[in-house]
Amino acid sequence: MATLKFYLREGLIAPARKSGQTMAWYDPSVVDRIRSIRELQERQFLPLDVIKQTMDGAARAEDDHAVTEAIASVLLRRGGQRTRSRDEVLASGAKPSELEWLERAGLAVPDADGMYRGDDLALLSTLGQARRAGLAAEMLPFDILGDYLAALNKLVEIELRMFRAGVLGRAKPSQVAALTKAATELSERLVIVLRRKLLLPTLQRLVEERARGSADKRRAPPGRSRSASSRARDPGRRTRAR
Asked: What contacts 24, CB < 8 A, 6 or more positions away?
């Protein structure tokens, strides 16, 4: 009991819930954690602060691994099983320079067998559909994806930081994979819905800003015209200037 209280005080273990001032319930996994702590103390002579850092780091690594695996499974299912070779992509209308740009950006990279798969192929197909719909390279250049990428990188970073702080800090290890899959699918739907919600108001704001800019230009005549009109209103001034 003294050892248990000591581990509690040092932050090495924590009760699942307290049922009174002197009573608490512990998750069964705490037993294995206590065994590991004692083994690290007695066999490897590690101080408790190092043991805590080591074990907390290992727990986070396991959670992160589970998150990565869960996200990968969702993305694989979304990407589908289709494949296309570089020659097939070029034959469908893509330009070599565009494929090279996408590969340098890490957005569409063929696998070791030279085939495009998953979201890489989905991206190429989406851009190909834009070209066939009449959105030429001059209207929608591939390098515009750089701006998309910068904005989405920030969004993904915020999303994952919030997930790791909000979910991983509260979920049981057995729940991590299922919660990650649910959150990944939910975030995709949220981005689509929020984009639809923001598209029209943002367009209206841009139109209004452009209209105000045009109105300001009309209210401010060019300098030469203003000088000429001033001279016309003040002929005496023109005479004095001579």
From this structure: 15, 16, 17, 18
The fraction of the chain above a pLDDT of 90, given in percent, is 14
Phi-psi region of 176 (alpha: psi -120 to 50; beta: other; left: phi over 0): alpha
Q: Residue 69: CB partners within 8 Å, gap ≥ 6?
A: 177
Per-residue pLDDT at 115 exceeds 90: yes
C-beta separation of 184 from 70 below 8 A: yes
* Mean pLDDT score, 138-152: 83
What's the confidence (pLDDT) of residue 208?
92
